[in-house]
Amino acid sequence: MNPLSSNPQATPNRSPALTEPAGAAPYTITDREATRQAREQQVGQRPGTLNIRPGALKPRLFLMSYDDSTFTEQEYTDRYDELLDELRQHPELKHWIDVRGYGDLPLIEQMMQDFGLHPLQMEDVLNDYQRAKIDVFDDNRLFMVSRMTDFTRDLEIDDDQLSIFTGPNYVLTFQDDYDDCLDSLRTRIRSNFSTLRRHPVLYLAYALTDVVLDHYYPTMAAIGDYIEDLEEAIFADKRPRRLLNRILRIKKDVVRFRRLVYPERDKIAEILRLPEEIMPETLKIFYRDAYDHAIQALDLAESYRDNISSLTDLYLSDQGNRMNEVMKVLTIISTIFIPLSFVVGLYGMNFQHVDEHGHLLPRNMPELYSPWGYPMVLFAMGMVVATQLFYFYRKGWLTNR
Amino acid sequence: MNPLSSNPQATPNRSPALTEPAGAAPYTITDREATRQAREQQVGQRPGTLNIRPGALKPRLFLMSYDDSTFTEQEYTDRYDELLDELRQHPELKHWIDVRGYGDLPLIEQMMQDFGLHPLQMEDVLNDYQRAKIDVFDDNRLFMVSRMTDFTRDLEIDDDQLSIFTGPNYVLTFQDDYDDCLDSLRTRIRSNFSTLRRHPVLYLAYALTDVVLDHYYPTMAAIGDYIEDLEEAIFADKRPRRLLNRILRIKKDVVRFRRLVYPERDKIAEILRLPEEIMPETLKIFYRDAYDHAIQALDLAESYRDNISSLTDLYLSDQGNRMNEVMKVLTIISTIFIPLSFVVGLYGMNFQHVDEHGHLLPRNMPELYSPWGYPMVLFAMGMVVATQLFYFYRKGWLTNR
Amino acid sequence: MNPLSSNPQATPNRSPALTEPAGAAPYTITDREATRQAREQQVGQRPGTLNIRPGALKPRLFLMSYDDSTFTEQEYTDRYDELLDELRQHPELKHWIDVRGYGDLPLIEQMMQDFGLHPLQMEDVLNDYQRAKIDVFDDNRLFMVSRMTDFTRDLEIDDDQLSIFTGPNYVLTFQDDYDDCLDSLRTRIRSNFSTLRRHPVLYLAYALTDVVLDHYYPTMAAIGDYIEDLEEAIFADKRPRRLLNRILRIKKDVVRFRRLVYPERDKIAEILRLPEEIMPETLKIFYRDAYDHAIQALDLAESYRDNISSLTDLYLSDQGNRMNEVMKVLTIISTIFIPLSFVVGLYGMNFQHVDEHGHLLPRNMPELYSPWGYPMVLFAMGMVVATQLFYFYRKGWLTNR
Amino acid sequence: MNPLSSNPQATPNRSPALTEPAGAAPYTITDREATRQAREQQVGQRPGTLNIRPGALKPRLFLMSYDDSTFTEQEYTDRYDELLDELRQHPELKHWIDVRGYGDLPLIEQMMQDFGLHPLQMEDVLNDYQRAKIDVFDDNRLFMVSRMTDFTRDLEIDDDQLSIFTGPNYVLTFQDDYDDCLDSLRTRIRSNFSTLRRHPVLYLAYALTDVVLDHYYPTMAAIGDYIEDLEEAIFADKRPRRLLNRILRIKKDVVRFRRLVYPERDKIAEILRLPEEIMPETLKIFYRDAYDHAIQALDLAESYRDNISSLTDLYLSDQGNRMNEVMKVLTIISTIFIPLSFVVGLYGMNFQHVDEHGHLLPRNMPELYSPWGYPMVLFAMGMVVATQLFYFYRKGWLTNR
Amino acid sequence: MNPLSSNPQATPNRSPALTEPAGAAPYTITDREATRQAREQQVGQRPGTLNIRPGALKPRLFLMSYDDSTFTEQEYTDRYDELLDELRQHPELKHWIDVRGYGDLPLIEQMMQDFGLHPLQMEDVLNDYQRAKIDVFDDNRLFMVSRMTDFTRDLEIDDDQLSIFTGPNYVLTFQDDYDDCLDSLRTRIRSNFSTLRRHPVLYLAYALTDVVLDHYYPTMAAIGDYIEDLEEAIFADKRPRRLLNRILRIKKDVVRFRRLVYPERDKIAEILRLPEEIMPETLKIFYRDAYDHAIQALDLAESYRDNISSLTDLYLSDQGNRMNEVMKVLTIISTIFIPLSFVVGLYGMNFQHVDEHGHLLPRNMPELYSPWGYPMVLFAMGMVVATQLFYFYRKGWLTNR
What we know:
The structure is a homopentamer of 401-residue chains.
Chain A: H1 32-42, E1 60-66, E2 71-75, H2 80-89, E3 94-100, H3 105-115, H4 119-127, E4 133-136, E5 142-151, E6 157-166, E7 170-175, H5 183-190, H6 202-214, H7 216-235, H8 243-272, H9 281-346, H10 373-395
Parallel strand pairs in A: 3-7
Antiparallel strand pairs in A: 1-2, 1-3, 4-5, 5-6, 6-7
Helix pairs in contact in A: 6-9, 7-8, 7-9, 8-9, 9-10
């Protein structure tokens, strides 16, 4: 009953029947509460129970069949049986069955049975938040997960899951969305001159992994540019609002990106350790190259983390500098005027030069009666100000830091 | 004397008799001093000495017996002998003996003897703060500890211990509380269509581990939501009191959660390394799935830790910003009014225009006698204020940062 | 000449003679300078040179001899020869030779020779600051070091060294002090019903390790309580003086505790890796339990470290908050009164309404001559204050944050 | 067709033909947008597709041929065929083919074919940002990447890639630039007495690696000097603008340097693990020395990182100190003058000594009518100032910190 | 030609001739620029090229020859040939050839040839900044590097290199300086009763390593004392200038010390892994002891690092506290006097009680004409001050924190 599995006996311990329907009809609520309810519903379910995420898209099926000289490509949405027929009729070709969207449980279950997929792995496919990994079936078929990233306008890393099953002459991929980052690969397959068509079908699985990995670079580049913009914004006269908030948000992205790439690297390392009969040396040389790329992406992510941490330091130090500047303005103004105010207050006192009986009190503020009193006071105050300004100048308070 | 142990000779080096009663009668004091006294009492005791925690609940016993086609379920509280009889009469069935509450030392000791449990492991059961672990008996029976978490209303992670002993045809679990998170599993066993009933009894031990692991997700989700709430609270106009305190408390939870899950992951990794005769490959495929889940929970916990550390940064920076704002208000007010106050003080001085002998002193404050003196001073002060406001505006101090 | 060593040829490469006396007569100076002098004296000495720490206590010798049915216990201080006789006369019993105090070099050297102890290890014993470790002699005898902790009133972790040598039918322990934490173990040995007396003598070495490990918990509990007290003190209205100092001191303790327990854990892990002929599996099951305890103690220490780091954050943030509060009081007072002071200063100016020639100057401060001038100024100032208070209230500055 | 590859069958799985031209004609745009476009163009391309970086230099070809006694050196730019002839005519000599600049795709492809280079590795060569690494071909030839560093005037680490291919009697190097740091090595080869000419050709590959490693030290020294300059600048009276910015920039450099050296160390470690037939022990002794140098460079980089982190602490603390000083000036001035201003304000009050009806009001400010009123007030204010100055002096506020 | 090398064929691949003189005549410039020039000169040189550091001392040669019963000791400076004769004449004795100072290249090269030393290792000797390490020659001779530390008065760790070559019956040491820390070892050798003289010559190499290791403790102790002094200084009323600078400087020392000890530990660990024929078990027991010491030194260094990090926290918190205190003084003074100044300003206003036409304006400041006006205002102001003082007292601002 597993017409496409090379060896139907290879997975005897897997429960092929899925008699308990998951029950959750597809619906579309996206708010936090609904998501949590859905999550809690799954708690305690039998492992391997398939849950279609609320709001999942209706699956579209595509098939590319090729060898060195021939190539056909067609969409089989709603025509799964024809797709199967096509596969059965052309065992000599290599096939890429490309499923986009999960929103049809009976179809998914039918494919599980036909292709001999394990419910636990199918659960990983549908969960859609599985880290990159590789599982080896006991008949040497592979199950690989890659995460495709996209950096959206509002500074979020958007990551979708690409699940890859390999078979003797086919590669079967599942993804959540209709759009993906694999078009450049499709173009290469369509080309008659592509070396890809001459390699065994396992090379297609590699090519998928590699294209996903290649797409990490534009994401990283966008993050890198944004970090540079933030760095300039820190020293701008008018800092944007909630700048630190943005810095920490991009940091979150970088941290998340690292979490995405680490398992990817580990996955490739595991592939490199696979025995020759599962992964031939002629393919490993390509994975070794992909491994270098993953390392480099991690390296870059580490650099970004360092940069962001320096940014945070800069931000806080600049905040301190601005406070310092405010304090200096306050201090200069206060220090200049407070003594002057004392002086003018002093000569505002009402000590009488003549008491109530008309006697002269010559010691009470004779300055007020001096003909040069006012000009001299003004001059004295000017001297005080000049002294203070000189002191501040020497302290470097008058220059801009 | 070990009717349910497959091989009574398998544990010859374990001291079966527990002649020294632990002495501590069950009582209910929960304050710190009492707990410490209890703790100190245990210091220096013989390893394997059983201590019933003060306030432990009276044990309730439940039995579920099942195979593909039959299923019985009954409570045997206070009827331990009948439970034993039931087990002996149905060696062909799979049994789950479910003990809730530890408050009856003689019963516990009787069970230890009947099921051939080691005192050291029984001590781990009763201690109730053993990290997740797995021990393998020399007759291939297993002792596993899982920690069931709950996130309470007052932001505490509440964790209870689930101790699992496996035998040839039974699983024996101990827990402290009457309530637990295993009801979804019980429902699955009761269902006639459950694949669980067709698997060997070791699968039940797996299913228990898996259900506990599944319950980590709602806990994590609640923590995640709370962290988001805190993030919003930081920028609120009126920050809640002791906000940092709350941030650090949730951090404590996350750290504690990580400490719970790490041993869980290690336990599962150890299970995956068990030889085929103890843990067959058909079960390991399920544990591999559980391993992925544990890794994912750890990943999430790491993200939360990063988020909280960013929150702390944000909080402190915002605190600095608020201080900055206070300083700016002070500086603006002072800087505007201090010079004005000097001016008005200046013209409050009492320099006399006429000395005591009636001579005019024309250099003493002639402004006071000018017909436009007052309006011009007012105008000059207005100019000063305008200049200052313009300066502050350019500095960006008047805008809300 | 090694009457108690099972195999005198086993340690041929150890230099048995200690002809160079260490020279340092026991004296009692505890200040820093003296300690340093002592330390420097040892620099460059032959490895294995025995140095009695200044102020070491005179050794007291105790012997416990037991098997399943018999038990004798006696102090042999100053009667080492009789102790040896006792050991020789009862080769069928298990013995615990318990030496407390190091202050008698000739006795120590005599014991080294009689029991075949290596000078390097004896140096470790006397140094008294050896980390927990295990050495295996080539005749399968063991040398183990444990560190006994105590948490003193003045927040110091006091740790003493317990050195354990095992022989074919004895355990020989050395410690610095007359008092220790082993009394609960002694009580257990004295009991006729103790399982300890039925186990081989190696079990006694385990029991000693386990008791020491058990005593870590009260130390940890005391530290945990103190940390909680500190947490409350941070938010107290009157913070105790040098609170941060105390926080950092307890942190030092926790860090030190971790440093004590890590080698303890490593030691037990090494014991678990010993081959069967040195450490039988029947004992390893107990060490596995001790290993769990050591891990748990480390776990706790890690939690404490996290807590203390959070405490430091809290302290500094609270310090910032207090500064903020001071600033706010200053700002409110200044902001309210500075404009008012300007206004009253304004009307304190002496612009004359009539010049020196008696001409009216109607533009000079006509307000002063208005019948409602004073009340209106008072009202205007009241309005200013009300506006400011409203502004501060909206900012949340009037509430207690 | 691979005249210089020792074993043409050794790389059967490499696609020798490069029929798809990379298309991107060399052009010269260096701004961010252009770089990103180029990067994005490569995403999804077939692995092993060669892309010439926009602006790449036209390749110059150099050949050094030598053995113990003979030596020839010539530039073969635009004469690649003659170079090949030279190589074929002198199989008994050792050759260094030195290619500088990548800007000629057909030539690069021709060399790939002639020397049997793998497209993936050639891609690494042209990418020019490959970390240091070593690949071993299946015919024991090596591909090594080193990174040559330079520390530019504007505090940037400039790093160029040196790609080294080894063959039976040649070493083939690629680099991006016409200038490099290898001139000292060239001089050594030219010398008739150089031991280098007596070693096998693999030693040349070592010597190249070693020279590159040697050049790390001047870079490190320049960074070290700059760090010292920064340390002095922190305490300078007039701190340079954006000092922290510079500190963090040099930190970026150090971090980047570490990232450069780590793979270098790993590469050498991998070389040391190569089997004898690929890397003879007589060469490994030199690599072991290079390994020590790499470790030492890493050590130095670690020290620098620590120093920079201390610098940041110093900077922030000094910033705090400066704020403190500003606050102290403000506080001293305010504290001295505010009470004085109160006093002079007090005696500026207009309480009347005589009411409007001419009655004496003797309680209203009699001081104003005392003959010694003014001198006594001055004296009192002097006392207040003296008291305050004494208080500040005792606090240590008047001294410079 | 290698009269003292046990097996002249053992090092065939080492280039014995050093025909290229290093050229750099010994001179004495110590400034940064000169050092850098010297460094840059070495870049790109042939590995194994010997460079005498500018300013190197003229070598002094010492020889100690001993066995159980005989002992001779002599200086052979400028008499290298006689030293060689002495060695050849007494092959039955153990010799320590002790070379201090490197400043004579021809002598060094002669020794290299006579003792069969490898140029790369000799380069390590002369470089004088090689980390601790061990190299094993192919004829089982050893090359070890230790670093001798000294803690100078001006808080610098001074470290010199001790390079040790072992041979069949000799140990050959090189060091830079005439003074060292090995005198205690020399005294031990001179003593007739020393066990050192009975051990094989390899034990001398161990003893050298051990003495160097022993000298780490006084260095650590000095650092520890200094850290304690710093801790007290933080809370002193008058903090010393640039205290943080000192803290960070001692931190640099500790970090450097760790970097010294880590390779030392690794070296000893590598020695412990050497096969029995190179390092007999009878010696390893001593190295195991040295390993414990190295671990303990590292442990201490880690503690110091923690302490210093706590010191930094304390310093910054105390800095914050001092700022707080300054702010509180400012706030108290301002808050008390600003309202008072307002009041006195209020009654300094010149609102007229009689207008210019002689009409009474009774609403204008009637208080000024009240007989109790002045006393009541004084009383009111006293009340305000009392209220404020009470408020501050309750806030805890008047107490010293």
